[in-house]
């Protein structure tokens, strides 16, 4: 869902849900109309930004598990081109390609109990061996581009090798953790819940405190990582989605 609030002095955009390409977005809009919540795509964001005074300060609130790489990069570049000061705020979690939007802002804020997640890009490929090798090479190029953004906002002393290892291993960071590696402002914990969209099955190594409701009050980075993310297609999908929201609300 994208909501926009605009006045003469400032503007706000709320981005939550899955990031998808324009073609998919327009099909969803045609089917659901203005009720197409849970998705965002470049053209819809562009229309919203066109309605904003380009010199006005802009705050982008993010609560997304990511999605399409080209769509996310396009939205990030739109945010970066905005002439007024931009501030990105993580409401619940900011995962995968959504982190590119977060780092596109001039100033970045994350509560200490919210999350960033960075990982390797993925795709689906068919064809012969040459086609599959080409897909792998393309993913390597895409990963270098994503890591360039992370390196540009890394703190002094954080090496490209460290960033690369974090991407390679799928890394979840609380606000406190993120401040050890990136130029971000950490705010006091707020009671928020992350949006769990259709891309959840792409998120690997979910901390236990997110994957299942955790009432132990342990911080997510203090809990051993699980092997894989939950499968949103199984019969317990709804219960697990509710558990995610409860876990983050209690974080």
Characterise the protein shown here.
The protein has nine helices and nine strands. It is α/β, with parallel strands linked by helices. Strands 1, 2, 3, 4, 5, 6, 7, 8 and 9 form a nine-stranded mixed sheet that branches. Strand 1 (2-6) and strand 2 (11-19) form a beta hairpin. The longest helix is centred in the middle third of the chain and has 24 residues, at 129-152. The radius of gyration is 18 Å and the shape is globular. The two termini are 24 Å apart. The model is unreliable at 211-242 and 244-251 (pLDDT under 50).
Summarize the structure.
This protein is an alpha/beta fold.
Note the main attributes of this structure.
251 residues, alpha/beta, 21% strand, nine-stranded mixed beta sheet, disordered C terminus, 2-enoyl-CoA Hydratase, Chain A, domain 1, 38% helix
In which range does the helix fraction lie? Answer: 25-40%
Number of domains: 1
Question: Which stretches of 5+ consecutive residues score pLDDT under 50?
Answer: 211-242, 244-251
Structural class: alpha/beta
Name of the CATH architecture: Alpha-Beta Complex
What would the CATH topology be?
A: 2-enoyl-CoA Hydratase, Chain A, domain 1
Largest sheet: 9 strands, mixed
What is the β-strand count? Answer: 9
Tell me, rounded to a whole number, the average pLDDT.
80
Report the span from N to C terminus.
24 Å
Shape: globular
**CATH C-level class:** Alpha Beta
CATH homologous superfamily classification: 2-enoyl-CoA Hydratase, Chain A, domain 1
Order of helices and strands: EEHEHEHEHEEHHEHEHH
Strand content: 15-25%
Radius of gyration: 18 Å
Total number of helices: 9
